[in-house]
Amino acid sequence: MKVITIDDSSTMRRIIKNTLKRIGYGDEILEAENGKEALDILASNDVDLIITDWNMPVMDGLTFVKKIRSDHKYDDIPIIMVTTEAAKEDIITALKAGVNNYIVKPFTPQVLKEKIEAVLGLKD
């Protein structure tokens, strides 16, 4: 499975990468520092899952999600937003933009695993 993790924090990308490997989803992990960089990577790679932060410079996660959801060739790729934005309104905004699931930082490996399984349809 090919996953792209998008976060302006290299530490957070490393945490997500290591967690994905530990929970069995670390076959191939691509990284981007912001939404614009992620768009460039998506243009030349087929990915199975997108894990994105919300707050990033250049292009934030919400703008990124809206942009790829408007391009219907990416409709089948599940998106999980991992962010510090915990307000109910923020979660609703992200879901309306096209995010499939939402994780509030900090999170445990078990939470990430459960959210991935949910968006991939591996869990009831």
TrEMBL record:
Domain Response regulatory: 2-120
Keywords: Phosphoprotein
Domain of life: Bacteria
One Pfam family recorded for the sequence: Response_reg
PROSITE patterns reported for this sequence: RESPONSE_REGULATORY
Modified residues (4-aspartylphosphate): 53
Listed SUPFAM superfamilies: CheY-like (SSF52172)
GO biological process: phosphorelay signal transduction system
Name of the featured protein: Response regulator receiver protein
Organism encoding this protein: Hippea maritima (strain ATCC 700847 / DSM 10411 / MH2)
